[in-house]
């Protein structure tokens, strides 16, 4: 878990976001994430978790509010500029190029880098994910679900982001692969990166997170430390109910 208190890196204030201007899905959500910390965003199906993370990643439009990364206002920074601004985003689906090799995917992630730096980041990615080093010449479609998720994270890490946004990294993975992927997420945070992760898998999510935010109908309904949320019977009953005792219903073995 993270060490002493640090000032937040990501500060989202009263974010309003959605797909159609008159029909916001996220209704004024504020949150903060510090370096070295994992904030997990939980909530029922359709609560707006993915919409929230996509709006922070610049993929879904924001209609109100402000997003700060350190001292920089990134509210209006378009998605293609966010990597250079220090934000890595791993979408839930279509997050690797399946016809390209592992190494080609990583090189694309590092497209902003110059030669020496690119080589160094590739080495770092292979050190972090030994499976990817072994499979560097294999095409994306030959990877298991878990390996693909590692590749998607490795790609996002190529530009050395200060903030990593993950949209349901456990989706479709077997419980064993979920713990492998989450172990990596924890290590990424422990290396000083701020991590915001959307999750359906409440139990596993709270186990690796420092803090949790529960979204209900596009609003922050509850926020607290992971241990406090885990042991709060009211939270479990009201918001986490059927998810608290099982993995996401849609999860299927893929590893
Ligand atoms: N591309 C889209 N265009 C229009 N509406 C969308 C789009 N994607 C999602 N929505 C709507 O936004 C609402 C919130 O969806 P979102 O995927 O953000 O919820 P979620 O909390 O991530 O749910 P889940 O856990 O099921 O993924 C839903 O009503 C959904 O139908």
From TrEMBL:
Top-rank taxon, per record: Bacteria
Bilayer-spanning residue ranges: none
Domain ABC transporter: 10-242
Tagged with keyword Iron: no
Originating species: Xenophilus arseniciresistens
Gene Ontology terms, MF aspect: ATP binding; ATP hydrolysis activity; branched-chain amino acid transmembrane transporter activity
Any single GO BP term: L-amino acid transport
Keyword terms: Amino-acid transport, ATP-binding, Cell membrane, Membrane, Nucleotide-binding, Transport
SMART domains found in the cross-reference section: AAA (SM00382)
Protein name: ABC transporter ATP-binding protein
Family stated for the protein in its record: Belongs to the ABC transporter superfamily.
Entry-linked InterPro entries: AAA+_ATPase, ABC_transporter-like_ATP-bd, ABC_transporter-like_CS, BCAA_Transport_ATP-bd_LivF, P-loop_NTPase
């Amino acid at each position: 878990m993270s060490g002493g208190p640090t000032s937040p890196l990501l500060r989202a204030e009263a974010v309003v976001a959605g797909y159609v201007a008159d029909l916001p899905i996220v209704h004024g959500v504020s949150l903060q994430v510090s370096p070295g910390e994992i904030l997990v965003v939980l909530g029922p199906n359709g609560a707006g978790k993915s919409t929230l993370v996509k709006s922070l990643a610049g993929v879904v439009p924001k209609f109100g509010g402000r997003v700060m990364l350190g001292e920089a206002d990134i509210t209006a920074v378009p998605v293609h500029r966010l990597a250079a601004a220090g934000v890595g985003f791993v979408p839930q689906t279509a997050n690797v190029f399946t016809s390209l090799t592992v190494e080609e995917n990583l090189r694309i992630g590092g497209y902003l880098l110059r030669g020496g730096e690119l080589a160094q980041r590739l080495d770092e990615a292979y050190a972090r994910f030994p499976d990817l080093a072994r499979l560097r010449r294999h095409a994306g479609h030959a990877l298991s679900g878990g390996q693909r998720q590692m590749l998607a994270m490795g790609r996002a890490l190529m530009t050395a982001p200060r903030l990593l946004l993950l949209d349901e990294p456990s989706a479709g993975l077997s419980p064993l692969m979920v713990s492998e992927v989450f172990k990596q997420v924890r290590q990424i945070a422990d290396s000083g990166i701020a991590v915001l992760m959307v999750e359906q898998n409440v139990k596993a999510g709270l186990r690796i997170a420092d803090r949790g935010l529960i979204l209900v109908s596009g609003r922050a309904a509850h926020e607290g430390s992971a241990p406090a949320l885990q042991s709060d019977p009211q939270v479990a009953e009201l918001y986490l109910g059927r998810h608290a005792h099982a993995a996401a219903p849609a999860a299927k073995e893929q590893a």
